[in-house]
Each structure stands twice: as structure tokens, then as C-alpha cells.
Amino acid sequence: MVAASLEGALEAMVRRQTEGDRLPLILRLRAQMEQVLANAPLRGDLVKAIALRTRMAALFDAEFNRLEAFERLPAQP
Fold first, then answer.
1. Which of 9, 48, 56, 70 has its CA 20 to 30 A from that of 42?
2. Does residue 77 fall inside a structural domain?
3. In which domain, by residue range, is 31 found?
4. Residues 11-45: pLDDT tens digits?
5. Max CA-CA distance within the chain?
6. Cα gap 70→23, rounded to integer Å
7. Structure pTM?
8. Residue 34, Cα to own-chain centre: how many angstroms?
């Protein structure tokens, strides 16, 4: 459910951009998310917090990889 929500939100953001602006947006969002996940403070149970952050990083990475790969595909004639 979280993955589907993330996918929908990111795709909506990317679709609003012109074709040439999509890849730079994806790369910028990826870099920003990496910074957020790396710098957000850990609170509460550290093991659970690190596990959650790891799952979130994997989820975002997979989605950004998918979007980036699609944008790098050669244009279809």
C-alpha cells in the first residue's frame, strides 16, 4: 500500500514536467530523499528506527530506479 501510494505520488510529479525536465527532477528528488533519510534524527527504539529507515530507503531507491530507467529509454518512433 505504501509502495503504491509512493509510486502514484512520484509519477504524478514527474508527469507534470515536460519531457526534458523529468530526469533532472527524478535525480533531484532522489538526492533530496537521500539527504532526508541520512540526516533525520533517530528516536525511540534505535533498532526499529534503523529498520524503518532501511525499508524506506529501499522503497524509494526501487521507485527512483524504475522512474529513471523509464526516462532513459530511447524514444519510441
1. 9
2. no
3. 2-72
4. 999 889 998 899 999 999 999 999 999 999 999 99
5. 53
6. 9
7. 0.82
8. 9
